[in-house]
């Protein structure tokens, strides 16, 4: 991405101080002209002035005026002064957003696009600059990228050719579970019986055993059929396309008919391998685990099992079914899975596509998460890390202290035992800036580099990247090395199946009790270490406050400080003040937990940073404009309301907003009912 200051931009020491002053005055003149223009509109409110802004630098000795002035100018350019902020603050603060950026753009999508541009810049540079090859990852990524650019018409049977040395000689004679174990090495667990390793809590992965996912079905495309029928493992000619589709449809219908037991979803129980083998003897569980995980699993190995009765019914059915059909179905599902992985260039391939470079970058960001983030850190971010961490960690610690104090005050009248448990969750919460593990040596990355093998074409590279990721996950489940665990549990190496690769904003991960602040956030327009207080706290404090409050929201509160499930929500629903607060918030929100985090996170930020400086109208209005910027253009999704709904509702629940903008009671942004949630 293009950071606030390009990483290769050098400070020209030969420029005189007088030239800097002249440039500063020119910037101030442009801002003043803009302010006069905005203030001349015939309405009550105008955009904030900067005459009395707090220009202090909270955590550094000095802050660049230019960075702040440019960003203020950007914020003001989105303001629609024909709108009244007390009626609809989104319409006021984001009124000219679409005019400038179009209907589909948000600050987060633009940040992601700039990150991709940085990667494109890097890969172009690597074609002529071999100095980076002294470091791990760079050479292999350059090769991987060039192999992706060389893609011709999709050749899906190449995936199967590369699996030849692992696949059995005959699909007819190989037990369906053995083929499933081979595919499991590449992270595919989508049908029949799902055996996989998952992140379980703050310090451990664990083996999970689940029945067939009957919510998903195969889309047998002509391309997948063609790839399968060309492969030589089928023991005879493949039936015609339509006939095979019908066979697969009937198979899925039979699998679906083996309904799950009448138990709640995600009702996992702990079982040992010996217990599983005794209750479901139709599969040699030790053998398929050894094949999938590349190690022997002992009989006392613990599993999280979901509905063992359904798994037994499925195994009994599969052991009586046509084995050739089952294995053909497995290969078809595997190819479909590979093509549908996020940003696989094969899914949207077209001759002469001009967007192949971008699709290769997005694909690599997803399939090679750790290597891609390593080179990004090294090339674009390392020089800024120290200054950024100083600010971000300090703001986090201050919010953390304020939230612990709020819990001590106990406005919801919780039991002291529950207060202590929730305080522990807040107290032990961690934060990680960037997308990599903190404070590791280059040796760690060289070891990762050795684990990851680059092949001869896109298909081999794709399979090897999956094998690399899932072998790491498998090792984490089995390792006793506490140092290694501490590294791998200090960041979130997203699965290749993760639905997007943007890492757009900070997020709270409940299993690790940790907030991740990705690269796409530690840049303008969201953050700069040189921001003045109104800009710094307007976004960073509100964003970290939002993520911190997810630890106490209506969904994730049940995870304790160590990522274990607890009964906190069972206790909370017995507290009248808590249930009243939730009932107050639960009004037409897409996701109640997001609304809760929006409201309580905004309040936490103001409780922490809303000192005397916020009484200055310039600072107060600028603070809320900076907060609004994140929501501009956001149309929402299945997890979030639209940006306008989120922004307006959250600020209507913050009395300081009405005070700053002089909103009278009953206006849209001065809610008559204040919900006392946290």
UniProtKB/TrEMBL annotation:
<dbReference type="InterPro" id="IPR042089">
    <property type="entry name" value="Peptidase_M13_dom_2"/>
</dbReference>
<dbReference type="GO" id="GO:0006508">
    <property type="term" value="P:proteolysis"/>
</dbReference>
<feature type="domain" description="Peptidase M13 C-terminal">
    <location>
        <begin position="514"/>
        <end position="675"/>
    </location>
</feature>
<keyword id="KW-0645">Protease</keyword>
<dbReference type="InterPro" id="IPR000718">
    <property type="entry name" value="Peptidase_M13"/>
</dbReference>
<keyword id="KW-0862">Zinc</keyword>
<keyword id="KW-0482">Metalloprotease</keyword>
<keyword id="KW-0479">Metal-binding</keyword>
<dbReference type="GO" id="GO:0004222">
    <property type="term" value="F:metalloendopeptidase activity"/>
</dbReference>
<dbReference type="GO" id="GO:0046872">
    <property type="term" value="F:metal ion binding"/>
</dbReference>
<dbReference type="InterPro" id="IPR018497">
    <property type="entry name" value="Peptidase_M13_C"/>
</dbReference>
<dbReference type="GO" id="GO:0005886">
    <property type="term" value="C:plasma membrane"/>
</dbReference>
<protein>
    <submittedName>
        <fullName>Neprilysin-4</fullName>
    </submittedName>
</protein>
<feature type="domain" description="Peptidase M13 N-terminal">
    <location>
        <begin position="85"/>
        <end position="434"/>
    </location>
</feature>
<comment type="similarity">
    <text>Belongs to the peptidase M13 family.</text>
</comment>
<dbReference type="Pfam" id="PF01431">
    <property type="entry name" value="Peptidase_M13"/>
</dbReference>
<dbReference type="InterPro" id="IPR024079">
    <property type="entry name" value="MetalloPept_cat_dom_sf"/>
</dbReference>
<keyword id="KW-0378">Hydrolase</keyword>
<dbReference type="InterPro" id="IPR008753">
    <property type="entry name" value="Peptidase_M13_N"/>
</dbReference>
<dbReference type="Pfam" id="PF05649">
    <property type="entry name" value="Peptidase_M13_N"/>
</dbReference>
């Amino acid at each position: 991405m293009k950071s606030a200051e390009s990483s290769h931009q050098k400070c020209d020491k030969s420029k005189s101080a007088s030239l800097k002053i002249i440039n500063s005055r020119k910037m101030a003149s442009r801002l003043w002209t803009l302010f006069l223009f905005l203030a001349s509109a015939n309405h009550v409110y105008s955009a904030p002035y900067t005459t009395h802004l707090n220009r202090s630098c909270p955590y550094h000795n000095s802050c660049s005026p230019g960075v702040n002035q440019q960003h203020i100018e950007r914020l003001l350019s989105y303001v629609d002064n024909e709108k009244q902020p007390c009626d609809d603050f989104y319409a006021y603060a984001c009124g000219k957003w679409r005019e400038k950026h179009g209907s589909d753009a948000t600050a987060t999508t633009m940040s992601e696009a700039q990150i991709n541009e940085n990667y494109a810049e890097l890969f172009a540079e690597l074609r002529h600059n071999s100095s980076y090859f002294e470091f791990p990852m760079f050479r292999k990524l350059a090769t991987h990228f060039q192999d992706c650019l060389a893609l011709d018409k999709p050749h899906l049977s190449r995936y199967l050719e590369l699996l030849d040395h692992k696949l059995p000689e005959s699909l007819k004679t190989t037990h369906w579970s053995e083929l499933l174990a081979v595919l499991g090495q590449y992270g595919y667990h989508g049908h029949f019986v799902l055996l996989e390793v998952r992140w379980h809590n703050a310090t451990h992965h664990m083996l999970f055993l689940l029945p067939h996912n009957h919510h998903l079905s195969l889309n047998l495309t002509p391309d997948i059929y063609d790839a399968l029928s060309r492969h030589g493992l089928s023991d005879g000619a493949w039936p015609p396309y339509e006939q095979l589709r019908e066979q697969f449809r009937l198979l899925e219908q039979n699998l679906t008919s083996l309904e799950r037991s009448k138990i709640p979803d995600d009702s996992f129980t702990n079982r040992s391998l010996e217990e599983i083998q005794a209750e479901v003897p139709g599969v040699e569980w030790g053998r398929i685990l050894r094949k999938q995980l590349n190690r022997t699993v002992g009989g006392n190995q613990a599993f999280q099992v979901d509905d063992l009765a359904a798994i037994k019914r499925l195994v009994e059915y599969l052991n009586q079914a046509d084995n050739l059909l089952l294995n053909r179905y497995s290969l078809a599902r595997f190819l479909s899975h590979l093509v549908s992985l996020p940003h696989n260039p094969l899914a949207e391939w077209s001759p002469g596509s001009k967007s192949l470079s971008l699709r290769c970058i997005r694909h690599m960001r997803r399939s090679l998460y750790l290597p891609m983030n390593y080179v990004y850190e090294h090339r674009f971010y390392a020089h800024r890390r120290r200054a950024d961490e100083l600010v971000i960690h300090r703001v986090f610690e201050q919010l953390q202290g304020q939230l612990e104090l709020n819990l001590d005050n106990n406005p919801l009248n919780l039991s002291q035992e529950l207060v202590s448990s929730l305080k522990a969750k807040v107290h032990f919460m961690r934060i990680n800036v960037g997308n990599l593990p903190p404070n590791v040596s280059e040796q760690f990355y060289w070891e990762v580099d050795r684990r990851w093998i680059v092949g001869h074409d896109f298909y081999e590279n794709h399979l090897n990247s999956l094998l690399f990721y899932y072998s790491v996950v498998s090792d984490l489940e089995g390792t006793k090395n506490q140092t290694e665990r501490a590294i791998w549990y200090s960041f979130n190496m997203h699965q290749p199946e993760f639905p997007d690769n943007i890492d757009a904003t900070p997020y709270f991960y409940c299993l690790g009790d940790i907030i991740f602040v990705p690269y796409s956030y530690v840049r303008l327009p969201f953050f700069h270490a040189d921001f003045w207080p109104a800009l710094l706290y307007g976004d960073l404090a509100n964003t970290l406050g939002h993520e911190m409050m997810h630890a106490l929201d209506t969904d994730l509160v049940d995870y304790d400080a160590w990522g274990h499930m607890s009964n906190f929500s069972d206790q909370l629903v017995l507290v009248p003040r808590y249930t009243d607060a939730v009932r107050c918030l639960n009004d037409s929100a897409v996701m109640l937990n997001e609304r809760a985090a929006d409201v309580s996170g905004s309040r936490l930020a103001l409780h922490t940073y809303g000192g005397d400086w916020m009484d200055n109208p310039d600072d107060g209005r600028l603070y809320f404009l900076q907060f609004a910027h994140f929501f501009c253009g956001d149309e929402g999704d299945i997890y979030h309301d639209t940006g306008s709904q989120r922004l307006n509702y959250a600020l209507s629940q913050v009395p300081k907003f009405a005070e700053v903008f002089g909103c009278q009671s009953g206006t849209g942004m001065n809610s008559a009912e204040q919900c006392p949630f946290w």
